[in-house]
Amino acid sequence: MEIEKILSGIIKKNENKILLIVMDGVGGLPHPETGLTELESAKKPNLDKLAKSGMCGLSIPVLPGITPGSGPAHISLFGYDPIQHQIGRGVLEVCGIGMEMNRDDIAIRGNFATIDENHIVTDRRAGRIPTDENKKIVQKIQENIKEIKNMQIIVQTVKEHRLAILLRGKGLSPFVSENDPQKEGLKIKKIVPLNDDAIFTAEVLNEFVDRVEKILKGMDTKAKTILLRGFSKIPDIDSFEKRYLLKPVCIASYPMYKGLAKIVGMDVIQGLDTIDDEISALHKLYDEYDFFYLHYKKTDSAGEDGDFNKKISAIEEFDEKISKIMHLKFDVICVTGDHSTPCVLKGHSWHPVPLVIVSKNIMPDDVETFTERACSRGLLGTIPAKEIMYILLASAMKFEKFGA
Q: Is 377 exposed, middle or buried (0-12, 13-18, 19+ CB in 10 A)?
């Protein structure tokens, strides 16, 4: 790609530090009664202070009008083309909990589910069984199913009803169908190959599901089958460190975002559960890295719940927390979201995402509040999210001049 050639020719290393803060799903839409978005409704003096001192704009995660998943939205923020580098959900789940993948492995997302005697799915999440119960079931499965047709099976708990599976061996293909009917009241599906290369893989997976059901039948649990989806291989993608000459670290609590960071070669800090844990880690790691990706999940969760007041509270909570990092001497700070998650839509949306960049090397604009409408008037304009990284690097003086 031309951009890789350009970057390799002008990128340079220095000691300047960059902080990328991602408030997941931060963008919203107006409440039907007040006409204000969640950001416009929240009290957020610290975010507004950043907006006043920085250069603001909006970003488009993938393409105008396209609603992104978290994977492509984050890949864009890391400066990669999300269309060229499509990453399967199975890989994100597996890498996010720290499982090591080989190039030939197939990564799979799994849900324990409840079925009746006719294989009709009655609960796709098996009552959201406790994580401790999940671990006991996974241990039983792993003890009894180590390989199928000479293919190694590796199973690990994620959380509650969720688990991650690795299929390891030669000649495997991710091009198989899911067995998840996606709705309760429907029969669990057989996994079928989507091309001739995947016939063997489908056979292995169907046998795996059958054997898991036999194990679960004898256990006192609502988990009676396993729904498999997100079949994927690890992508071929340049490491973040090699691409940008940065030493990067991911500070996040949710497995998927840690998985995304790991795929691009960031160091991933484990054992973080809250935003306070993340901010504490940021302080401890300040001297060890020059690029910091800090992720905040609650804004997205509230948006998907459709809870307007909860999202306002999440914004206000984060605003209070970031006051604890403003004294750290970052040369560039960027605050944005990976995508918008308006409460009125109860899900991700295609709407542009507010963005602010603070550095002594940028031109501050007249924006005074960190909101969607205010940021739309900023000097950055509306830009593709994959270009944000270039502006952060430039603001940290990490580019040489391009051309004569």
A: middle
